[in-house]
Automatic annotation (TrEMBL):
Protein name, entry field: Helix-turn-helix transcriptional regulator
Residues in HTH arsR-type domain copies: 1-95
A Pfam family per the record: HTH_20
GO molecular function, one term: DNA binding
UniProt keyword annotations, A-Z: DNA-binding, Transcription, Transcription regulation
Organism: Formicincola oecophyllae
PANTHER family: ARSENICAL RESISTANCE OPERON REPRESSOR ARSR-RELATED
C-alpha cells in the first residue's frame, strides 16, 4: 500500500456512519450484509447508506456482490490488513520494538480473503 491509498482509506473511515458501516461489515464476514439491513440497523435511509458504501468501495474497503435481487456488501479484509501494515510500517520505523505485537496482529489472517476485493 502506498501513501495515497492509505490516505483514501483513512479519509473514507473518518466519518462516523462509514466507520460504523465498516465495523458492521467486518463483524458479518464472510456473508456480508445487504443495504436494507444496514439501513435498518443504522436507522438511516437506504440511499444515504448507499452513498456511504460507494465512498467505502472507492477506497477499496468494501465490495458488493449480487445475490438474487439483493446486493450484499462485504468488508475487504485484505485492504484492512494492508492499511494496518502500512500504518505500522510508517509509524514504527523509529521504535520497532514498541510495535512488534501489533505487527503480528496486522499480518494474522482474521478471515479468508474475499474473492470480490
Amino acid at each position: 500500500m502506498d501513501m495515497e491509498n492509505a490516505l483514501q482509506a483513512l479519509k473514507a473511515l473518518s466519518q462516523r456512519t462509514r466507520m460504523t458501516i465498516f465495523r458492521l461489515l467486518v463483524a458479518h464476514e464472510p456473508t456480508g450484509l445487504p443495504v436494507g439491513v444496514l439501513a435498518e440497523q443504522l436507522r438511516q435511509p437506504q440511499n444515504t447508506i448507499s452513498t456511504h458504501l460507494a465512498i467505502l468501495a472507492r477506497a477499496g474497503l468494501v465490495a458488493a456482490q449480487r445475490q438474487g435481487r439483493l446486493r450484499f456488501y462485504r468488508a475487504c479484509l485484505p485492504k484492512l490488513q494492508a492499511l494496518t501494515g502500512f500504518m505500522l510500517e510508517e509509524c514504527c520505523t523509529q521504535h520497532p520494538g514498541q510495535c512488534s505485537a501489533s505487527a503480528t496482529l496486522a499480518t494474522h489472517p482474521c478471515a479468508p480473503p474475499p474473492s470480490t476485493c
